Amino acid sequence: MSPAAGRPPGDEQTAPPAGQAGDAMSPLARRILDELRAGPRHFSEIVEAHMDVPWREFLRAWGEVRSSPLIGREEYGRYLIKQAAARP
User: How many CB atoms lie within 10 A of CB 81?
Assistant: First the structure.
């Protein structure tokens, strides 16, 4: 294990640079954003739509989505694209 990171070598995590939501996102993260553009979703619905993706890969993509300034939540807890970000 690398003492500085606390993780085994090769287990580094990468995230898109701040302010570049969508630019450096993985294809899966972009797909999830597209699904949210179609309408609000509960986390469980997003997971169910991607059961064919390895869990670790899904969670990394979900982390990219959650860190995006485009994402918000409605009163029922569903994730959505914020109105200002949804406009072209």
Answer: 20
